[in-house]
Amino acid sequence: MHLNTPPRPVNNHKIYHAHVYFDKDTLPFASKLCHAAGEKFGLEIGRVHQKTVGPHTEWSCQILFSNQSFDLLVPWLDEHREGLSVLIHADTGDDIKDHTTFAYWLGDAVALNFDAF
């Protein structure tokens, strides 16, 4: 494994968020991807933000899911993301730890703004 390779997702928490990152060129695809995940797996999908929100330094859409959906959703997202970066993190209530220690990536890691916390 390359030293700069971000950690891959592991299913060891109860609740998760996935943040699919995109830009104006990939907006239509990212929106379809997130809504397809919501429909396929019966999950809550957040707004498709065409601005930075919270610690996210790129446009993003949030998918809320549990450990029960993890083993189906995460491989599906990885297979269908077509190069988009996806942050998957635990939702333990500790925002800093969730976005650092419990943060996993599909694709390249994206810089986060921890000053947002």
Task: Describe the protein.
With 117 residues, the protein is of the alpha+beta class. The chain has a single domain, classed as Alpha-Beta Plaits (2-Layer Sandwich). Helices cover 28% and strands 26% of the residues. The protein contains three helices and five strands. The chain has helices spanning 27-41, 67-80, 95-98; strands spanning 15-22, 44-49, 59-66, 86-90, 103-106. Strands 2-3-1-4-5 form a five-stranded antiparallel β-sheet, covered by helices on one side. It starts with 14 loop residues before the first strand and ends in an 11-residue tail after the last strand.
List keywords for this structure.
DOPA 4,5-dioxygenase family protein, alpha+beta, Alpha-Beta Plaits, DOPA_dioxygen, DOPA-like_sf, single chain, 117 residues, five-stranded antiparallel sheet
